Amino acid sequence: MFSLSYPFLHLSLYNTEIKSLTYPLLHLLSFSLIFSILSHILHLRNKQTNPIFLNPSVMAYEIGGVRYEEEFVLNSRGMKFFTCRWLPANCEPKALIFLCHGYAMESSISMKGTGTRLAKAGYGVYGMDYEGHGKSSGLQGYVPNFDEVVTDCSDHYTRISERKENMEKLRILMGESMGGAVALLLHRKKPSFWDGAVLVAPMCKIADDVRPPALVVNVLTKLCRIIPTWKIIPTPDIIDVAFRDPKVRQEIRSNPYCYKGRPRLLTGNQLLKVSLDLEQRLEEVSIPFLIVHGAEDKVTDPSVSNLLYESACSKDKSFKLYPGMWHSLTYGELPENIDVVFEDVTLWLDDRVAMRETQLEHEQKFENDELLKGKSAIKTV
């Protein structure tokens, strides 16, 4: 469900249910026309976009030294997308952080703590809700094309980065769970554009012990063409194992912008394809990164994060494993544990900013030295 990275992957946890589903699903294929009609009827009945504000003006407020702003923007396909940002109220941001939220989650509520903490630490933090998520347009919980999710994020975050006031600032991606996959694909899309990434329990490979049987994957993939929006993927309600703090569990269950149903068929298929693709190309990751992962995570496998750490060709890479912590480290953990995680994240970010400042100082000194050499040569002549 919410931060669930692999809605397709939990199939193997239900071998009995899979076996009971396989025959009926195969049987359904022979009635493709009937299901196509039913799918169309169901889609019309359920088709609804998440709430959107029609007022184009920016909503903003300031509290505790942080300025929060939100607005809707149009993507390249003419869809309305919810965007938000947390900025230091009394100083210029020392770097830019771009958030990529998890599956079925959203930005303004579940990532508020992240945005506020990092803005208080001096960073400009930007978020957006994907298609079918949060307050953005689209059928709730439906991701028809993962490439379009990446393109939407890339377009919006690139525009922000290329504003005149942001041109010299570091650009850091921060992705949690499925958002980790989004961050890695953003890096792949523009390998030299992003300056770093913070990956929180990222979705970057399918663990062998939860890989769905090939026959089931084949059947469900074919059904995606007929009933793409149907919620028929059997998965458990994992709120109780992903979010450790009981208060946060209740917040998520009462949050109308978090998707709460079973994964839609095409959505699960898209996440499966992305996971397989990332798994085969981990060694191509070259961006500086920090991975943080809870050792007791039951949603994404910490050993997979370790594999990413070992496989990536990045020269600047770090991996933090937290004993006893669960999946959601920035929102659902115990408050004292969240403090520990953000202390590590902020320290890593501050180090990258300091390295950048040192680099700029060296570049400026080199330019000054070259200028002085040029003037000296002119005088000699």
UniProtKB/TrEMBL annotation:
InterPro entries tied to this protein: AB_hydrolase_1 (IPR000073), AB_hydrolase_fold (IPR029058), Hydrolase_4 (IPR022742), MAG_DAG_Lipase (IPR051044)
Protein name as annotated: Serine aminopeptidase S33 domain-containing protein
Keyword Metal-binding: no
The keyword Ion transport is assigned to this record: no
Record keywords, A-Z: Membrane, Transmembrane, Transmembrane helix
GO molecular function: hydrolase activity
Ranges of residues in domain Serine aminopeptidase S33: 92-330
Taxonomy, superkingdom: Eukaryota
Membrane-spanning intervals of the chain: 20-42
PANTHER family in alphabetical order: PHOSPHOLIPASE-RELATED
Cited Pfam families: Hydrolase_4
